[in-house]
Design a protein that fits this description.
Layout: E1 11-16, E2 22-37, E3 42-51, E4 56-64, E5 67-78, E6 81-85, E7 90-94, H1 95-106, H2 116-125
Antiparallel strand pairs: 1-2, 2-3, 3-4, 4-5, 5-6, 6-7
Length: 128
Amino acid sequence: MSNNAPQMNLTRITLNLDNGAVMEFSGRAFAGGSWYDEETETLTRQKLYISESGEHIYSIISGQGQERSRRAYRVSLAGETCTINDGQSEMTLNLEMLMLAVRALAGMERADAPTLDMVEETLRAANC
């Protein structure tokens, strides 16, 4: 019997983050993009990786002039929970709470929208 499942071409990937963490994994890039904000003169590049174990890793690098910001988040799903790790901290949420946070963040462009701090406080209060 032959296995017709697609083979992943894995590479050892190392992401050095501004929080002092080094995120290492075997995987491959499968999506990405970049954009330039003319108002703030900030260039942002985002890459999405999938690890050998099926986790998703989001890498975000932003730069303005000589300043750079390097962040990454490892996201894994197990049943109805999602664990997000930034190389130093880890947060586990149920999927319903994660969707609430995403909806709140998506509305941040409105003047009356909640701030990121407000969303984080709500998540902490819910013991996420």
